[in-house]
Amino acid sequence: MGAAAERSRQITGLRDRKREQNRVKTVEVAWRLFMERGYDNVTVADICAETEIAPRTFHRYFAAKEDVVTDPIRRMAAIVTDHLAGAPAGLSATELMSAAMREVGAFVVAHRAWLAALRQVARQSHQLRAAHAGVPPEQEREIVRTLASRSPGAGEDDWRLRVLVVNATGVFRVWYDDYLGARLDDPLPRLDEMLATLANGVPVSE
Amino acid sequence: MGAAAERSRQITGLRDRKREQNRVKTVEVAWRLFMERGYDNVTVADICAETEIAPRTFHRYFAAKEDVVTDPIRRMAAIVTDHLAGAPAGLSATELMSAAMREVGAFVVAHRAWLAALRQVARQSHQLRAAHAGVPPEQEREIVRTLASRSPGAGEDDWRLRVLVVNATGVFRVWYDDYLGARLDDPLPRLDEMLATLANGVPVSE
DNA sequence: CAAATAAGTGGCAGAGTGTGCCACGAGGCA
DNA sequence: TGCCTCGTGGCACACTCTGCCACTTATTTG
Predict the structure, then answer these.
(1) Residue B83 structural domain
(2) Which has fewest Cβ within 10 Å: A44, A201, B72, B90?
(3) Which of A135, A86, A151, A179 has the alpha carbon at shortest distance from B202?
């Protein structure tokens, strides 16, 4: 199902390329409009008018209007799974996850302005806030699966792996919010410090 | 603003009592229908027909159809904040959160059948899955605030507190899913074991 | 106790999202 | 070149949610 079909679809040209062009253009237009007027003040019809596609087609690209916004989140999850899949052997699960989160951290720093805008947009709408609050369940399971495949002796149902992933992404979320909220001067070392809690627990003194 | 108005509203009777009756009845009807036919196959109009209220009134009670379902989640978050607010002094933040999560755990065990049904319903719809995936941001902040007020020397912006809360609720979520998925024979001790990772880190060997 | 006031309700119209269906046209294949 | 596949656009429709206004019923005031 997956790999072969994916590859052949990538190779085939022109029709699929045009499709991809339209998709990208749609995302760009939508984002510009969202930042200009706010998420709730932009209709699907507005986006379609500028992109020059039919509303019916929009919903073939994106199951929901919301999905245009949550695209970057999916991309960040992809960075994690890619990193896990490509990491050298012999590392502990905790080290693997920490390294992956650091990589996403670097991505965030590199795209700070863009992601800060995403955060602003996401805060405007009630529905978006939930979507932006964490890693979507689907992606989370994917991460657990990949991590499990790199961890001999631990199945993907192992609660320790699942807790590790949930905590790692949770820690990242806290850092992410602090950083984009402009509360951090030296972001990456702070992320390291926070990730250390995965191995040592949370250092709450009192 | 809050306390006085709240109290007077509680005392005043008849009109507000009827309102509350209707609200409760609406929730009951909605839940029965959801479990019978599935979330997506029940319209707001269906619910209103049996509850004998106008659709317009339904949306005065609930901002969204979804809110009828996510009500129990809010109740669990309330258990946490209540516990934190009423706990004896002198405990560490980690101990406070662990105890709170154990209490919610007991609640879940006591209402297992009901919550398993909730889980089923929540899995049916794409939108609901996101809502059910974790503690809503609003409630999460509330928990952090309450915890901070019980933790001398730690503001509500302290990243350690926020990480603690995120991890505690994350651990709980993993346990919750395992338990309602019927994968646990001895749920509460397992929850204890999982909560221990808050203080000691995740015990992933390899 | 009666009149004025406040507050919740129902009905209506409308905006907006998302889906099924079908015909059309342009890329892909023999 | 001619057939065929597949994405697209347009149409109609179901559904959620909101603003508005008239109506009824509880509550308060003189």
Answers:
(1) 67-199
(2) B90
(3) A151
